[in-house]
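User: Round two. Same drill as before: sequence, then structure, for each protein.

Assistant: Same drill it is. First protein:
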Amino acid sequence: MNVYEEVEAFYQSYRGEKTVIGESAEGRKLYAMFVGTHTSPVGICQYAIHAREWICACLALWHIRRGLVRGGAWIVPLANPDGALLVQEGAESVSARRRGELLYLNGGADFSLWKANARAVDLNVNFDARWGTGASNVRMPSAANYVGIAPFSEPETRALRDFTCAVQPQFTISYHTKGEEIYWRFHQPFWRLRRDKRLAKILSAATGYPLREAPLSAGGYKDWCVEKLRIPAFTVEAGREDFTHPLGLSALGDVVTKNLDALVRFTEEF
């Protein structure tokens, strides 16, 4: 069973509130499941927007099982299903019309380090937050860092944008791998810096991960939430630095152990 099938099976059996927020470039559904209650704070947590970081989707299912004591959260376990399956199953996982180009861009059939979606756009630089200004951004289709032809050019990022605007969350958390660190800053004014750093410290204490800054990055989901929605938003890089991409199930125990209670503690102290 691949990671998309695992998320889909979990979604179908889930008895709580749930919805489909959109579809990927290849027509795969983007699932969201709600945990907790619709009392403050309510947020959105999205996982595995980078293809090779599909292990985050497995963590998402553990977060859903764990639930919340205070507040609530919409969990989007697999924000980039096409990319995840490229990593797990190769070019045969996408439609025939895309295979040749993807194999060419990738330089071969081993997609294990692929980050982008099935259109070779890095979804986490495709949001409208100083789009295209990141130090690592590229302007041509690529396995990583291609910003797309315009902000929100991809169905996956449009789905996250529209869902986020509909929910109007009080916070968002994005789970990535790896490095065991938390990013929280994106050009906030002073009064929001104080608010956001206080919350970042809660997440840091819950995971044991230090806070970091990435002043040369742009266009991410976290960045867009901070700049456009003016809410606290965080990127959590789970998994030890000595793990190698793509993190597999052998790394899941470490990731879950350090992050299982993170959302519970964060919402309790929000």
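Second protein:
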Amino acid sequence: MFRWFESLVDPYTAYQETDAPPTRLVPYLRSFSGPFRRVFAATAFITALVAITEVWMIWYLGELTDLLSGGVPAEIWAENWPEFIAVAVFILLIRPAVQVLNELILNHGVGVSWGTLIRWRVHRHVMRQSVGWFENDFAGRVANRVMQTPSAANEVAFQVFDAVAYAVTYAIGAAVLLSGADPRLLLPLLIWLALYAALMVWAVRNVAPRSKASSEARSQLNGRLVDGYTNIHSVKMFAHHDREIEYGREAIEEVRRTFGREMQVYSLMNGMLVFLNGVLIVGVVGWAMGLFFTGQASLGIVVAASALVLRLNGMTGWIMWAVTNLFQQLGIVAEGMQTTSAPVTLKDAPGAQDLEVTEGRIEIEHLSHHYGREVGGLDDVDLTVSPGEKVGLVGPSGAGKSTLVKLLLRFYDAESGQILIDGQDISSVTQESLRRSIGMVQQDSSLLHRSVRENILYGRPEASEDEVLAAARQAEANDFIVDLEDRHGNRGYDAQVGERGVKLSGGQRQRIALARVMLKDAPILVLDEATSALDSEVEAAIQETLYGLMEGKTVIAIAHRLSTIARMDRIVVMQDGRVIEDGPHEALLAQGGLYARLWARQSGGFLGETETEAAE
């Protein structure tokens, strides 16, 4: 039964993705509601039905009071027993059935699937963002917003139907019945409703911005904590335990301060609500008693009116809490929209086709990119890499080597110029096909918190087990992998590697990353200090494997240890975002320029400050 209600809407149903979601609150929530329109309508109807049954029962109590006080008990039973039986059946069977149906459709038809649909679509949208977009925010804050925005939206739907729709229907029903008994009873109720509405408007106007500020403070706290936990090795290594605690305390204090300001509204609101409820009770019950004492109303009307307003009195605190909670959750959604409705700026061109790599020629033409700044990045770079050519990129830190690689992978769109692969502008092909065609090993390759097998298969998910093992052996990784065991008892290729692979040494992570790229077997290979984390013996073995892997591929390799790229077909030397030297190793040594000075200083060393000085 529960499954049936949960299956009323498939949260993973196909939909039209948009690059720019709505940036205003109501349109944003409405953009997710399409599949739920019928379920929402049914929920509102059944919620209203529950409220009507409650009002009717209270009013029937008044009718019953008049009936029982106006005759002989035996005669009353004889004349009205069918009505009494019908009411009993209604209370015992029909009313519970309606309320159970209301709970099922609200909790399972809406509650289970509405938040799931939003979280699924929000996650898909965030995953489409560029690498640069992620680099500009805390990963913890992004994750927090992706998690809490759908939860808050789910709570919004729950409060709208469970509280607001119920309360509005109940108030209308009570007003209709009171006016039917005596229109004068409606006056104190209307006065109370007006004052209550004014109080809610005041509360909402004050709660919404304070709730948003409180939510922002929580996201900031989450981001800071996750940042510290993720980089715990750096925290411990630099002995910044106390500094990091203070960094977190500042964010915790901001959460306390903003939450305290939010609670101030609730405290004032509750105090005023107690007074308003007193006005309601005295007004309606006192007026009804006045009518009774003057013979203008029956005892049943007094009983029914009293029961109605006492029920309203009991509901007002709940309704006020529900409404303020509604706007509190709307504030959380609004804060989360800073992430979840951010437009996708790096996207495929309309009608983009898949990249077709036939030879692997790379042509870089007048490429400039400064990350929106005046200095740094690349400045009018021209470079051609022939099919199957192996090119090494060298230069001091900040020369633009990594920027060039990021633009080749289209992690950013170049500010000017273009990159062509086999004559195809990479900005006009799909990003997925571009990156499928390029294999990359970075200096510090992070792994997913999954099994070793899953991490290697990330290179080519459809690969067979034999291919996975072969790639691991090629990368000199099989011997240590078979000895791995995680805390759950998983061994070998089934062992979990920890978040970002932190349970492994740097060399082990690098070898698994190499196995992943070897399995991918892309026609273009990018190596960014691919063997820097390996010891000399393993590096020598891996280098020979890499040279074999490079056969038939176009290769761009970044290296600070010049000895690792001396065998490349060409070496491109960069400085201050420009190409200043280009040629084979021996030719560059003969030129006596920057590369020759770097080579002379290194003897297999690291390219650091001395190289920068040499360049000057």
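Confidence is low (pLDDT under 50) at residues 604-616.

User: Perfect.
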